[in-house]
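anyone else get weird line breaks when pasting these?? whatever heres mine. first is seq + tokens for prot A
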Amino acid sequence: MTRKERFDQRNKQVRKLFYELQEKNKKWRIDAVIDEVAGKMFLASRTVEAIIKYEGIYGETPSTPNSQISLF
């Protein structure tokens, strides 16, 4: 299993745990759920938030391997 595959699997588990806890504890604020997931997955709260929102490097992978714009 490659490093990217491990990260993808981890991110799926983080999202799954987040939505399970959110469904189970409907009265909790979102940041309380994020903190709970962060504690269980040994990640920073900001990392969990970025994974859930698909921000930055936690977003979907580009369809082409070289997706940067060529300036020259």
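and prot B, same format (seq, then tokens)
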Amino acid sequence: MRAGAFLAAGTFASVMTIAASGIAAAEPATDITVDGTYLVNVDIKPGTYIGDGTPDPAAGGCFWRRLWKIQTPQDYPDPNYYIIASDFVRSKPVVVEIKATDVGFSTVNCGAWHLQPAQPNTGSAG
């Protein structure tokens, strides 16, 4: 019983030290410079991104995916099951709207992506 009490006290002290240290979580990025899979609202901000496009068309095109879940080894084995939207393009630039409700965004061979400023709402439907 005593070991459990010490363990609980140590865990509580560690949590309090981290909470009181003033270390804030990093803001999500507005630029994506490396191929990979990114968590929306954690690694990157949602919004409209413009990609530089395929740096080397001979190596293939740009492939991006918006994801509703990041696949793990225990999940359904088909990676296409987790895609909300995707595209394979060779043209430049590449534009994608990453929504706040997306869980992840994956990019391969697209070059750098840059978040565009939000367009002001004019109140017009057209």
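btw re prot B: Helices lie at 2-20. The chain is about 15% helix and 30% strand.
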